[in-house]
Design a protein that fits this description.
The complex is a heterodimer of chains A (251) and B (159).
Chain A (H helix, E strand, L loop, with lengths): L5 H8 L5 H13 L1 H17 L10 H13 L12 H7 L6 H8 L9 H18 L5 E2 L3 H8 L19 E9 L2 E10 L2 E9 L8 E4 L2 E8 L2 E7 L3 H15 L1
Antiparallel strand pairs in A: 1-2, 2-3, 3-4, 4-7, 5-6, 6-7
Chain B lengths: L3 H12 L2 H17 L9 H15 L2 H9 L16 H19 L3 H12 L4 H8 L3 H24 L1
Helix pairs in contact in B: 1-2, 1-3, 1-6, 2-3, 3-7, 5-8, 6-8, 7-8
The chains are: A alpha+beta (251), B mainly alpha (159).
């Protein structure tokens, strides 16, 4: 394992690369034995590390104790504002190794994503998942299993329903990234096609509507404070049928 | 209380002890609460985890020495699962126990990047922020951590 590109390969697997950088890394991995072996190993370890049993939860007694302590303090802790990422970048680019950070910025996408970036990012995530075989982290056809699985893993609670009757059975879900935002991905099948339904918080980005990348079609829409993208290699009409089912269910 | 589980998970993996993790998290939550005016914006989770990490370091060399030699079998009941399928849980749990021991063998600076990346799903930039290291260092430590984990894991599997 001495390929000089191993760190880039790792960055790709960690979802840190997008666009051209991601495509280049992907091409490299396909042709490099070291990087293919490393990818498989990282993916396998990652699966085990991310198993629900690995993560420690705060015991109730501790929760109660801290709750009581905080109650004695004056300011209301529950009203912690979730400020926007953008403010962080305009206001707080100081401190931690600014030079190193600046050098690394060329690799990372940090600003609110453009429609173009979103189209690319969703296609990248979809193909990456298919390539790495990590399409499904929780496998179940029951929305009672899939929906709660997302709790605590992503900011959003995506609508999850089984459309087996209509020819789109629910098969599972995973956590992925869309242009830097963590997204819930609900996975469906249609015949031998795989459909990824990406759901992530709406932060005001402009969505592309429809896009096609590497032969994969994507349809984007907003509903409430959520952004949606359905991605598949099927014909447009079938994908529209699926999108209509999801929209009817969630709206 | 936002992100208490994330704070506890990090404290637990850093300190390797339920009692120490309790103290660290309690300390960290109070500090975070009092220091909230100094919060510069951005995502609150990395900010909180940085405080947890500082509290752990402040907890002293004593705790850290014990942490490195502590074995997981004397810690019971800390691993809680939300997975409703009991068979999957049993399988996951035995695997997790083994992995738990293996992770315990990693030096602190490698264990922390691994936990932050894989369990807390922090980006490189966020890990850099939390650990006060340049992104390049985060990347190389993460790669090294994964290699070490793989080697130790394979050794256990074969043993």
């Amino acid at each position: 394992m001495n390929c000089p590109e191993l760190l880039r390969t790792q960055a790709f697997l960690d979802g840190e690369l997008t666009g051209d950088a991601a495509r280049e890394a992907e091409r490299h991995i396909a042709g490099c034995e070291d990087c293919r072996a490393s990818s498989a190993s990282v993916a396998e370890m990652s699966d085990v590390l991310r198993a629900s049993t690995m993560r420690h939860r705060a015991p109730q007694a501790l929760r109660d104790r801290i709750g009581a302590l905080l109650d004695k303090e004056t300011a209301p802790v529950e009203r912690v504002p979730r400020r926007r990422r953008r403010e962080f970048w305009t206001g707080a680019l100081s401190g931690v190794g600014t030079a190193a950070l600046a050098a690394a910025l060329t690799m990372f996408v940090l600003l609110p994503p453009s429609a173009e970036t979103l189209a690319q990012s969703v296609a990248d995530a979809h193909t990456h998942a298919l390539m790495s075989g990590k399409v499904i982290e929780v496998a179940s056809s029951s929305h009672h299993t899939v929906k709660p699985w997302f709790a605590g893993k992503v900011e959003v609670s995506p609508p999850v329903a089984d459309f087996a009757q209509e020819g789109f059975p629910l098969v599972g879900g995973r956590v992925d990234k869309v242009a830097g935002s963590r997204a819930a991905v609900v996975v469906y099948h249609h015949g031998r096609h795989e459909i990824d339904l990406f759901v992530w918080p709406d932060k005001g980005a402009r969505l592309p509507g429809e896009s096609t990348r590497y032969g994969y079609h994507a349809i984007f829409w907003k509903s409430g404070d959520l952004n949606f993208a359905a991605v598949c290699d099927m014909e447009g009409a079938e994908l529209h049928k699926f999108v209509n089912l999801v929209r009817a269910e969630s709206e | 209380m936002p992100h208490l589980d994330a704070a506890y998970n990090l404290a637990r993996w850093l300190s390797r002890s339920p009692a120490d993790a309790d103290d660290i998290v309690q300390d960290a939550m109070l500090r975070a609460f009092r220091a909230f005016d100094g919060f510069r914006g951005g995502d609150i989770r990395p900010w909180l985890l940085a405080i947890v990490r500082n509290c752990w370091r402040n907890a002293g060399a004593d705790v850290r020495r014990r942490a490195q030699i502590a074995l997981p079998q004397d810690e019971d009941g800390g691993l809680v699962s939300a997975d409703p399928d009991p068979e999957a849980v049993a399988m996951d749990t035995s695997r997790s126990r083994k992995l738990d021991e293996v992770i315990a063998l990693l030096p602190n600076e490698f264990r922390e990047v691994l936990v932050l990346r894989e369990m807390e799903d922090m980006s490189y930039r966020e890990i850099a922020e939390i650990t006060g290291s340049p992104i390049g260092t985060v990347m190389s430590r993460l790669a090294r951590a994964r290699t070490m984990l793989r080697e130790k894991w394979t050794a256990r599997e074969l043993a």
